[in-house]
Amino acid sequence: MDVGESGNADYFDDLTFWWLFFGMFYQQLKKRHRAIRYNSILTGDDRVMEFLHGHWERIFNRTRMSRDCFVWLSSILEQTGRLTPSRAVSVEEQLMIFLFVVGHGASNRNAQETWQRSGSTISKYFGIVLEAIFNMSGEYIRAPNMNNVHHTIRYNNRFYPYFQGCVGAIDGTHVSACVGAGWEGSAHDARVLEHAISEPQNSFPFPPPGKYYLVDSGYANKGYFLAPYWGTNYHLRDCRRLGGDRKKEQFNYRHASLRNAIERTFGIWKKRFPILRSMHQFPLDKQAMIPVACAVLHNFIRMDLASVAQDHIAGDEDDDDASSEDDDVAAVPDRVDVGESSSQVNIPHDMDMGAFRDYVRDCIHEGTSG
């Protein structure tokens, strides 16, 4: 190699070096001047402490429960090993992120901004807490004692003894979902119920003999399900204008009033957790877990008197659908059982639901005209 060729090689080596140098310098300069995305002076953990030690209404509005209830729940989750703190996110922050999303229907982006965490972190801990609370369902969601008569029936002469065999109500109280092919839009109520009772893995709580559920006109009057009369006023605002077949309309009015009283609990539940009214596009299995987890939280909150009291004090400015049509029917508290039922208007073993409905209809008419 002659001197000229050697000089050219050194020149290109120097040029390459300087290009690499300036390239690296430029990248470092970009990093230095890049805007920091999560630059709040308060970290997520700082915000948790701010809520825990601030005014009671702030943590209630954020989590839908009192401060003591929140601390109690987070302690249970940590002590039972369902939640564990990570290096960067405490159990309290994990739980508060979850409660913020379900209690406000907040999007992942809103949660990122509120808690100064990345979208993947929000999603990760939402899923972890969801599974933890879902796994508490066996402790906090239990079928009522179906051999007892609920006090709303037992101590109201509009319902007792006519509906003393009623153990619950089923109708189109829907929780929104983003579903795939086969269940698009609003699947018919009867189809959903048929799927629930026909699949053994669903563990549908069938009532004992002589007991039944109230259902609306979207279901068949058979088996364990007592439906109103077709072609007769049914909704409360219509039943108040009695006319036509008075016996059937009297039955439908009492039936609708009782079903409405029972289902006010669902209105309160959906008001407390707006995500149930506008489900996010989670995977379907996660969507199925969310209503169960919210039911666990609802029952847990009901065990805390402070949360119940603060719920009444704070009110809710942004929700308006927890109330029902029939304001003269009291709301039904959770898990209240009273003494054994008598056997005045029970379903005889040899009578189908059609004949039993006529029998209750006649009893109601005799009771109001006597």
Task: Describe what you observe in this structure.
This protein is an all-alpha fold and 370 residues long. It is 53% helix and 3% strand. The chain has 15 helices and three strands. The protein has helices at 3-33, 44-53, 56-63, 67-79, 91-104, 108-115, 119-134, 137-140, 151-154, 189-198, 236-239, 246-272, 284-302, 305-314, 353-369; strands at residues 166-170, 212-215, 225-226. It has a three-stranded parallel beta sheet with strand order 1-2-3. Helix 5 crosses helix 7 (119-134), helix 7 (119-134) packs across helix 13 (284-302) and helix 12 (246-272) packs across helix 15. The longest helix has 31 residues, at 3-33. The N and C termini lie far apart (124 Å). Mean pLDDT is 76; it is low at 316-343.
Short description:
The protein has 370 residues and is an all-alpha fold. Helices cover 53% and strands 3% of the residues.
